From TrEMBL:
Enzyme Commission designation: 2.7.1.26
GO biological process terms, semicolon-separated: FMN biosynthetic process; riboflavin biosynthetic process
Keyword presence, Mitochondrion: no
Database matches in PANTHER family: RIBOFLAVIN KINASE, RIBOFLAVIN KINASE/FMN ADENYLYLTRANSFERASE
Boundaries of every Riboflavin kinase domain copy: 1-92
Signal peptide stretch: none
InterPro entries with a match to the protein in the record: Riboflavin_kinase (IPR023468), Riboflavin_kinase_bac/euk (IPR015865), Riboflavin_kinase_dom_sf (IPR023465)
Protein's organism: Chromobacterium violaceum
Name this polypeptide is given: riboflavin kinase
Any one Gene Ontology molecular-function term assigned to this protein's record: ATP binding
Gene from which this protein is expressed: ribF_1
Keyword Membrane found: no
Amino acid sequence: MKPALQGVFVVEVDTPGGRLGGVASLGLNPTVSDTPDYKLEVHLFDFSGDLYGQRLTVRFLKKLRDEARYDDLATLVAQIERDAASAKTYLTSLQREQA
């Protein structure tokens, strides 16, 4: 089943330890996977630990871009770094607005 949203997003995630910001990819991961399965992958900023098996709430705050296929992993990693930087900038601007 195709999800209503696809792409790369700025997210907030409610964890057992509190709310954290991050960046998420929702889609097919075309650079590293040829399967037709949709996946949600979330990278949380300023977090280290294990959340496997935990129930989490993910809030999609802003779409950064559509999903894309890259020629190699180095290009993909560089784009992921840019996405993370954009997400951090957006989250910082939200914090300033709420202060």
